[in-house]
TrEMBL record, chain A:
Pfam families: Transketolase_N. InterPro entries: THDP-binding, Transketolase_N. It comes from the Bacteria. This is Transketolase. Residues 29-269 form the Transketolase N-terminal domain.
TrEMBL record, chain B:
Belongs to the transketolase family. DXPS subfamily. GO terms for cellular component: cytosol. Its EC number is 2.2.1.7. Residues 1-162 form the Transketolase-like pyrimidine-binding domain. InterPro entries: Dxylulose-5-P_synthase, THDP-binding, Transketo_C/PFOR_II, Transketolase-like_Pyr-bd, Transketolase_C. SMART domains: Transket_pyr. GO terms for molecular function: 1-deoxy-D-xylulose-5-phosphate synthase activity; metal ion binding. One of its GO terms (biological process) is isopentenyl diphosphate biosynthetic process, methylerythritol 4-phosphate pathway. This is 1-deoxy-D-xylulose-5-phosphate synthase. It is an enzyme of class 2 (transferase). It comes from the Bacteria. Keywords: Isoprene biosynthesis, Magnesium, Metal-binding, Thiamine biosynthesis, Thiamine pyrophosphate, Transferase. Pathway: Metabolic intermediate biosynthesis; 1-deoxy-D-xylulose 5-phosphate biosynthesis; 1-deoxy-D-xylulose 5-phosphate from D-glyceraldehyde 3-phosphate and pyruvate: step 1/1.
């Protein structure tokens, strides 16, 4: 990836993070979980997936399912920047005049399916990948899950079934930000060694830094990793990435900042100097 | 024509139809060879089965999913509600051995809250055919509808010549002034017997095969109530949430009341065994039903002496 391209994606990701920070007030949102997958979503929509506002009905377009639906601010921020939705629509967050709330839904063009309950969209994506294969199409189906989401048994059902069907057009992406809602994953339900787990289930695995655009390009560009296995890309990420004051903290999952704090946090995004936060943070939603 | 032949014929004529199962192949054993990739067995994974069906439906397919009624409606309930229900996707649920049809399996397999659960999902339609012929007459319209659908699969041999199915309409078999039996599913054949036994005792007894539980045929229910006799709700389901509850809702909504005898499973699972044993033990044979109604009507139940022969269940799965 050229350095110009990297700079372009970084600038785009910064604007998306600004949207996330602005959504983290007046009721708030899942700020930490959104910031960890921002670079991933920006890379996928801006540089990899064959999806655009103009080609949503194209027979050969790709499918991306956001199974960890609580990071929807990152998706909507990306959509607003890439023209899937007007930026002004983000101001309707949590308002009854629109359908912009804490989890995605199909009233926003580009959202493939609603989510919010964890462990659902791997199976829905499996159905879409089976359909595309039946039709002889080469569309890619990508499902993004959280790492805490891997606690759900339904995910592993689908992991078994996709391997049984040798679904090489199906890719799971794990936003491995090392936290579930309230605590570090390894302190609650340890997931490591995660790559070997997927390998043992018959998947082809790559593990990368989910904030490094060159690594994202190298991994996604190598899909499918196998002709007769589904692929998984484990993206090591940092919860709250971009805001040093909330990075990698168990208590900064759902955030509802004051309007003054939002102003400070927008500065922090650019300066990378931690802000002092006093607002109460809700960790359970 | 049987279930497998019907689904095969439908799938061969319409490539949107996908036959799916969570390794419950009792009714569809011969279809993998015929349908190739349009036969999808996900193994014993009811949640993934329903999620994948939702994904296929998103792409314009009509998935007909097969698994045991209790595992579909309970293990995969949230997937049905959240993926199929919120998505309003045309996933067609073929629910195997519902109600008394799981006979010898025991309470783990007794789907006797399925109607309550499925009708609670906005937009879900719910069907319970009386027997195989009734079911084969209903399924083409159910599969052709854009709505998600739950069907209590019933392959019991028919003992009655049914009228053609009309979506949302009940089949009125007979009207009566002393009592009317409202029934759905496999107990229809016992209701027919019960009606004959009561008629032989000089009682005028109506019989309605509900067929569709949601949307229910309100007009048919109100007509029965307006006839003025005892209304019997007969179901192999918990008393809560099924037909008895549906009738109560319809009555309240229309500011009416009626004398109602619920014959259902009241706060209990049923004794497992051969179907004949189950119906005899739980009091759901034609004879027992007739006796229970006779008693409620103030007649002598002991006068109904003809023991009912019950045809055993075809499936042991």
């Amino acid at each position: 990836m050229t350095s110009e391209k990297q700079d372009e994606l970084k600038a785009l990701a910064l604007r998306v993070r600004e949207h996330i920070v602005r959504l983290s007030t007046d009721g708030g949102c899942f700020t930490g979980a959104s910031l960890s997958c921002t670079d991933l979503l920006v890379y996928l929509y801006a540089d990899f997936l064959n999806i655009s506002p103009e080609t949503l009905d194209a027979p050969d377009r790709d499918f991306l399912f956001l199974s960890k639906g609580h990071d929807v601010p990152a998706l909507y921020g990306t959509f607003a920047e890439l023209g899937f939705m007007p930026k002004a629509r983000l101001a309707n967050h949590l308002k009854s005049n629109d359908s912009i709330y804490w989890h995605p839904n199909r009233s926003v063009p580009g959202v493939e399916f609603h989510s919010g309950s964890l462990g659902h969209l791997p199976s829905v994506g499996l159905g879409v990948a089976l359909d595309n294969r039946m039709r002889g199409l080469t569309n890619r189906t990508i499902v993004i899950t959280g790492d805490g989401e891997l606690n759900e048994g339904s995910v592993w059902e689908t992991v078994l079934v996709a391997a049984a069907h040798k679904l090489s057009n199906f890719t799971l992406v794990v936003d491995r930000n090392h936290f579930q809602a309230n605590v570090a994953t390894e302190d609650l339900i340890p997931l490591e060694p995660l790559g070997p787990k997927f390998e043992a289930f018959g998947w082809a695995v790559q593990r990368i830094d989910g904030h490094d655009f060159a690594q994202l390009e190298a991994a996604f560009g190598a899909l499918p990793f196998s002709d007769d296995k589904p692929s998984v890309i484990i993206c090591d990420t940092v919860r709250g990435r971009g805001l040093p004051s909330i990075e990698a903290r168990a208590d900064r999952w759902f955030c509802n900042f004051s309007s003054d704090e939002v102003v400070e946090l927008l500065k922090e995004l650019h300066s990378q100097e931690a802000t002092t936060l006093t607002s109460e943070t809700l960790t359970v939603r | 024509m049987n279930y497998e032949e019907l689904i095969k014929e439908t799938a061969l004529a319409d490539d949107r139809l996908i036959v799916m199962t969570a390794e419950n192949r009792a009714l569809i054993r011969n279809l993998p060879a015929v349908l190739g990739p349009r036969f999808i067995d996900t193994g014993i994974t009811e949640q993934t089965l329903i999620g994948a069906a939702a994904g296929l439906a998103l792409r314009g397919r009509i998935p007909v999913v097969h698994a045991l009624a209790t595992f579909l409606t309970l293990r995969a309930f949230e997937f049905i509600r959240t993926d199929v229900g919120i998505g309003q996707l045309p996933v067609k649920i073929s629910s195997f051995v519902p109600g008394f049809l799981s006979d010898g399996n025991g309470p783990t397999h007794q789907a006797i809250e399925d109607v309550a659960l499925m009708r609670g999902i906005p937009g879900m339609t719910v069907f319970a055919p009386a027997d195989e012929a009734d079911m084969l007459g209903m399924l083409p319209q159910i599969w052709a509808s854009p709505s998600p659908a739950y069907v209590r699969i019933n392959t019991r041999p028919s003992t009655y010549q049914h009228t053609p199915f009309e979506m949302g309409k009940a089949e009125v078999v007979a009207t009566g002034t002393d009592a009317t039996i409202l029934v759905y599913g496999m107990l229809f054949e016992q209701a027919l017997i019960a009606r004959e036994l009561l008629e032989a005792q000089g009682k005028s007894v109506g019989l309605v095969n509900l067929r569709t539980l949601k949307p229910v045929d309100e007009a048919a229910l109100l007509q029965v109530v307006q006839a003025g006799g005892l209304v019997v709700t007969l179901e192999d389901h918990f008393q809560t949430g099924g037909l008895y509850s549906i009738l109560a809702e319809v009555l309240l909504k229309n500011e009416q009341t009626a004398k109602v005898l619920p014959i259902a499973l009241n706060e209990k699972w049923y004794k497992p065994g051969l179907l004949s044993e189950v119906l005899e033990y739980e009091g759901f044979t034609g004879q027992h039903i007739a006796q229970r109604i006779a008693e409620k009507l103030g007649a002598n139940p002991a006068a109904i002496t003809t023991k009912t022969e019950v045809v055993e269940n075809e499936f042991a799965e």
